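Incident log, structure service

09:12 report received: a user says their structure output differs between two submissions of the same chain.
09:20 pulled the input from the user's history:
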Amino acid sequence: VQLQASGGGLVQAGGSLRLSCVASGRTFSGYDVGWFRQVPGKEREFVAAIRWNGGNTDYADSVKDRFTISRDNAKNTVYLQMNSLKPEDTAVYYCAADRSGWYLSRRSAQYDYWGQGTLVTVSS
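09:34 re-ran on a clean worker, output below:
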């Protein structure tokens, strides 16, 4: 599975962006998908995740009530809608897929496939 993340850009604080993660190579409808972000010099951190069937989601406390993860398995795509963006949301955002389907995880090591990242910059 190859993952392609897109939708990043420059936005003012309080604005919105929608990130997309498109899978190719094979369907990932049976995979849980997560979004992570990383700032240079810091560890990659969990942002949000969604079960393979969209039946369960999980969010980091820092983005809860502002970000929404969703998926369209017919389009092999997972979305991250980001509202009320803050300068501290500035990071490279990565999507990742977990093929095990065991449980929804916040651990980056649980994920098998990673996209290349898309940069989100929020200006104050």
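09:41 both user submissions now match this output. Likely a transient worker issue. Closing.
09:42 reviewer note: The radius of gyration is 13 Å. DSSP finds no helices and eleven strands in the chain.
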